[in-house]
Amino acid sequence: MSAMPLAPLVPLTSANAGTVTVARRRTDAHALARLEREHGKALHGFLLGLTFGDRHRAEDLVQETLFRAWKHPEALESGAHASMRPWLYTVARRVAIDARRARLSRPAEVGPDGLEQSPAAEDRTERSVAVLDVREALRLLSPDHRAVLLLIYFRGASVCEAAEALGIPAGTVKSRTYYALRSLRALLPGYEDGHLRP
Predict the structure, then answer these.
(1) pLDDT tens profile 157-169
(2) Rounded to an integer, what distance in angstroms lies between the CA atom of residue 44 and that of residue 162?
(3) CA-CA distances (angstroms) from residue 44 to 58, 59, 65, 80?
(4) Which of 104, 136, 146, 169 is the most buried (most CB within 10 A)?
């Protein structure tokens, strides 16, 4: 693969100022391949340390570092560096920092395991149906049983408070509650016993 040819330079004038594009030079493909051969393993090891052992992320960062080297041929050609490794490490460290900042600015990624552990969206349909069933069953109870259940379970009255409100002994409140719940169980087949325990 040969180096990318340069576009001919056009003199910049006021007439063509908006239309002239300047072609940028890129690193020769052979030089880039040599750079990867000579420094790729060391660069990958360096980035593994910065990514806490994440091989895939380190490989991505190596590619991004080499891409930056491709975009800046002057760093390779200037001869200012006795070795390219320190320059590559500096670029790689900056690339890793930028990638980490970008990742932290996004919401956390959720894998398929996280979705299975998340609570299911609340479905209120079953609850609404149960409320309607209980209302219908309460309507079918005797007035005495319904009155006891309404005071104790829906208004939160104690046995003594219900007895006082209904003008009956506390023992009668307890027995009516027991038989009312038993009747509800018979009227609401398919519901768990725990919901209608006397």
Answers:
(1) 999 999 999 999 9
(2) 77
(3) 6, 7, 10, 24
(4) 146
